[in-house]
Design goal:
The chain has about 70 residues and is mainly α. It has three helices and no strands.
C-alpha cells in the first residue's frame, strides 16, 4: 500500500479537526445545559476539565499529520 502524501494527511487531518472539535463543543455545550442550576464551582470544574481534555487527541492528530513531512 502506498503511503499517504503529506497533502492528503493535512487535508484529512484538518477536516477531522474542524468537524471533530465542532462536534465536541456541541456535545459539551449540550451537557452543560444540564449544569445550569448547579453550584458555580461544579460548573467551573466541568468546563475546566472538558476544556482541556480535547488537547490530547488533537495533539496526537497533529503529530500524525506532521509525520508525513519528516522525510
Amino acid at each position: 500500500m502506498e503511503p499517504q502524501r503529506p497533502v492528503s494527511r493535512s487535508l484529512y487531518g484538518m477536516l477531522i479537526l474542524i468537524f471533530g472539535l465542532a462536534a465536541y463543543a456541541f456535545f459539551i455545550a449540550s451537557i452543560g445545559d444540564y449544569l445550569g442550576n448547579t453550584h458555580i464551582a461544579v460548573q467551573v470544574v466541568f468546563y475546566f476539565i472538558t476544556g482541556t481534555v480535547w488537547i490530547f487527541p488533537v495533539g496526537k492528530l497533529l503529530r500524525w499529520m506532521a509525520e508525513a513531512y519528516k522525510d
